[in-house]
Amino acid sequence: MPKVISGFLKGRKINGFDIDGTRPTMDRVKESLFAMIYNNLNNSIVLDLFSGSGNLGIEAISNGASMVYFNDYNKKCFNIIKDNIKNFGILDKSIITSLDYQKALAFYQKENISFDIVFLDPPYKDMINENIMDYLIKYNLLKDKGLIICEVNYQIDYNNDNLILKKEKKYGDKYLYIYQKK
After folding, report:
1. 46 and 121 in contact (C-beta within 8 Å)?
2. How many Å separate Cα 166 from the centre of its chain?
3. Which residues contact 100 (CB under 8 A, 6 or more apart)?
4. What is the C-alpha separation between 138 and 131, in angstroms, rounded?
5. Which of 74, 157, 162, 167 has the fewest CB atoms within 10 Å, i.e. the most exposed one?
6. Where are the domains of the chain?
C-alpha cells in the first residue's frame, strides 16, 4: 500500500492502490520525483489530471502545495480520492472532479485556472501526453516556469517551442519526463 513519503503527512497510508485500471506510482519513483521538484512545490497550484488514488496530489500537498486539483473519470477513484483527502484533513487544499480529461481541461480553461505543476499519468495505452501538453500551452493552463511531469512506458520524443525538457529518467519499464515552460 502506497504511503506519503515526505512532508507533514509522511508515513500516512494512501487507500486505493488496488483499483482496477490504475497503477500507482512506485514509492521509489515518487521519492525521486519529489526530490527533483521539491523547490517548486511551496505555495504551488497543482493539477493531478489522472489522479487514481490521489497519490501524487496528496504528496504535493504534504510538501507545500497550496491547492491541488484532483481529477479522475473513474467514479471509484473519485470516491477513494474524496475519502483519502477527508481522512488526511486536507479538504481546504483540494478540489476534486470526475470528468473526462478533455472536459476537465476545458473547465480549467473556462475558469481561467493555470497551474505551477501538472502531473500527467494517463493509462499507458492511450499515449495522449503530447496532445495534453500542447493543450496546456495553447490555452495558457501552465504558468511561466511551470512544470509538466509525465510518467509513461514509452520514450517521448516531444518538441514544443514553449517547453524545455528538464529531466528524463528511466525506472525499469517506466520513464519519467519533466518539462518546464520557458
Report:
1. no
2. 17
3. 73
4. 10
5. 157
6. 27-181
- Residues 90 and 57 sit within 8 Å (Cβ to Cβ): no
pTM of the model: 0.95
Q: How far apart are alpha carbons 82 and 108 in whole angstroms?
A: 20
As given in the structure block, the three cell numbers for residue 127 are 499515449
Could you report the per-residue pLDDT of 135-182, keeping only the tens digit for each? 999 999 999 999 999 998 888 889 899 999 999 999 888 899 999 999
List the 163-171 sheet strands across, edge first. 94-97, 67-71, 45-48, 115-120, 142-152, 174-181, 163-171
CATH class, domain 27-181, is: alpha beta
* pLDDT digits 0-9 by tens, 19-50: 766 666 777 888 999 999 999 999 999 999 99
Residue with the three cell numbers 504551488: 44
> Whole-angstrom Cα distance, residue 132 to residue 129?
5
